[in-house]
Request: fold
Amino acid sequence: MSRLFGSVRARATLAATLVVAVALVAAGTAVLLSLRSNLLGEAGTQAERSAREVATELAVGTPYADLSLDVDDRPVQVVDDDGVLVAASEDLERISGTGIDAVKPQPAASPGGEDDDDDDSGESLEPGEIGGRITVSDGSATVDGDTEDYRFAAVPVKTDDRGTLTVYAGAPLSAEHGAVNTALTVMLIGFPLLLAVVAWVTWLVTRRALRPVEGIRREMAAITASEDLARRVPVPGTHDEVARLATTTNETLAALESSVERQRGFVADASHELRSPIASLRTQLEVAAAHPELLDLDGAVADTVRLQRLAADLLLLARLDAGERPAEARVDLAALAREAAEGRTGVRVRGAEGPVSVAGSRGQLGRVLANLLDNAQRHARSSVEVTVRRDGDAVVAAVADDGDGVPAADRERIFERFVRLDAARSRDDGGAGLGLAIARDVAVRHGGTLTVHDAPAGGALFELRLPGDRAGAARDV
Reply:
């Protein structure tokens, strides 16, 4: 049972059926009440009409014996001021609801006082006048052996010689009972059938609506089982929420596939880059073990340093890929550029004399400048120039060399990992193809950009653009 109602289709069907059931019960109740009220009102009108007909006869002085009391076999009573039954339907055997249970007329008493002009309802009537205030009540009566429920109307009338009389006439409620019972029977039979139809239609419509979702689920399960991220889920042509879900799922799969492919390529390239210095270092150690006099200590140290730098680069890239946020510190980019250029031959720093602050990680931004300077020195013929300046709300650090520059077709490719464009970026020169990739990633993490253009001297101009530090938003370092 819990598994059944764990289905969206089952819950939707149940909810729709319950809502329709509540609506049907409310509507049915309103219909029954309205029908009963209308039929009761019609019965009251019929009873009043019958009572007024008899009251009209009394108003013109018709004797009790000549009154039309047995029309349509309806119960009629005529009561005088003293509550004595003076006339009644001939076949009336029992009556209730009028306040007068007697069914056999009593001999007529002397008329009431001439000065009494008020009837029991408080109306002041003139002789021969019929009262306008009608009293309606419900009861039952037995006429000629048939017992039914009736609605009674009481009509007062003032006569010349018999005082004020009250006529009670009843209209049967069998039509009201029959109509209400018929409507109730129809509802009791029809409502369950209608609810069954609603449940069935909702089940079918929901199944059809959720069929694409089930297709997406099956395909995702197959992708998980096969680990084939090149597969995609089917996109229905309905252009609705399900179609957008399928499209978003495929976009997520594409991004995941691309990420996995980049990760695999990164691992493969990293393994390849690590293999060379490790193999070289092992060879040198094996030779030194066999022939100590042939130990190339400088080469071993260089390979060890290269391994250390490569491991540090890989660790930083891994932290950047994991989404590590840079520290929110205030960094003087001009001072950082001077520190990075210190001790380097042919590197000149110019630009702002005072602090040029940005918010970020001092270590990571220093790494960016160092990588840009390493790259520029490998390609420069004689000089490298570093410029730090403000540009509106941004801070720009530009590193230019007088080398051959970067071809326009390769200006984005050089920021990819383990990419070398020529022999100048060889392993012998110490470049693993990670410096510019790290610099671009750090710039992006700091909300900035790193681009390459043509330098005025004909070489390459790398431009690091970062948001300027907002006053009070960061702490000093």
